[in-house]
Design brief:
single chain; alpha/beta; D-Maltodextrin-Binding Protein, domain 2; 2 domains; 11 strands; 46% helix; ATPase-coupled transmembrane transporter activity; SsuA/THI5; NitT/TauT family transport system substrate-binding protein; ABC_SsuA_sub-bd
């Protein structure tokens, strides 16, 4: 009886000790609030969370989901987030009203086919869009993708009938047979082609770096959480490198968070070009700045922005450890 009691007491003591240690460990982790939306290009976030990379860096990551990449920028500016997974075009749009308040500190990927123009089978190339109804998100980056396709094939926006829709609604409407063509993104591209309801006639693969998925921070984060941001990016980059070297393992880790099957994730990954630390630094010191200038000019032209945002200091690789 005494032996049993002692064993029970020892077990309870061990359990309490483990719980106390776990609590103490949690207390030492620094909170870092991150906004995101469910997108294949942000796979590194989900991998790092599953693998415990953030915890290894001493961070307590608190994730908040948004429906689109631009939605978390206002909370970021307001101090409710420390970082946000967004797109370069969304940041440039926000900077028009908040100059100097945001910077891009990491590029997770560039779309390389994950954004595209889907069309009915009888529409072979963008040249065949003349007089057709095309859904696109007016004033956003996928309109610029559409414009590039039209220009390449000798058309202008005036040659087609534009319907303003967000990418998800456009994909759903096209899949339902309501449109001649639609500018959309994954998973709609894979879904539509898999169901043989349409095909890709132009994609972001033909416009490198036009659609950049990035991590943005505010001036408040840059000043108050510099060390945490560097730790966050170390963990994130470790996960991105894993996804680059072993797509299948990455798919298995991230599928649940992306609400997809692992095999679907594997199929989608080639449609984004993931950037590791070295590529980030290279891109941010030149090519990305040029793309930023093009986006800034476009947003002024279509009257989304009041002026042309100065993008020369938007990309900042200083937080990336080499």
């Amino acid at each position: 009886m005494k032996a049993g009691f002692r064993a029970l007491a020892a077990g309870l003591a061990l359990a309490l000790s483990v719980a106390s240690w776990s609590s103490a460990e949690a207390d030492t982790l620094k909170p870092y609030k991150v906004g995101y939306n469910s997108w294949i290009g942000y796979i590194s976030l989900f991998i790092a969370k599953e693998k415990g990379f953030f915890t290894d860096e001493g961070l307590d990551i608190q994730m908040q989901s948004f429906s689109s990449p631009g939605d978390g920028l206002a909370p970021l500016l307001g101090g409710q987030l420390d970082a946000h997974f967004s797109t370069a075009d969304s940041v440039i749009t926000a900077l028009d009203k908040a100059p100097g308040r945001l910077e891009i500190v990491y590029m997770t990927d560039t779309s390389a086919g994950a954004d595209a123009i889907l069309a009915k089978s009888e529409i072979a190339t963008p040249a065949d869009l003349k007089g057709k109804t095309v859904a696109v998100t007016a004033g956003q980056c996928n309109e610029l993708l559409l414009r590039k396709a039209l220009t390449k094939y000798g058309l202008t926006p005036g040659d087609i009938k534009i319907t303003n829709m967000n990418p998800d609604d456009a994909g759903a409407a096209f899949a339902a047979g309501q449109l001649d063509a639609a500018v959309t993104w994954e998973p709609w591209i894979t879904k539509v082609q898999g169901e043989k309801k349409g095909h890709v006639i132009f994609s972001s693969k033909e416009t490198p770096n036009l659609i950049l998925d990035i991590v943005a921070i505010s001036d408040k984060t840059a000043k108050g959480k510099s060390d945490e941001t560097k730790a966050f990016l170390r963990a994130l980059n470790k996960a991105n490198e894993l996804a680059i070297s072993d797509p299948k393992a990455a798919a298995d880790l991230a599928a649940k968070s992306l609400e997809l099957k692992p095999e679907e994730v594997v199929d989608m990954l080639p449609k984004v070009k993931l950037y590791g630390a070295a590529d980030n630094v290279t891109q941010m010191k030149g090519p990305a700045i040029e793309v930023g200038k093009e986006l800034a000019a476009f947003f002024k032209e279509v009257k989304v922005n009041d002026g042309i945002v100065d993008t020369s200091n938007v990309f900042n690789p200083a937080f990336i450890g080499q």
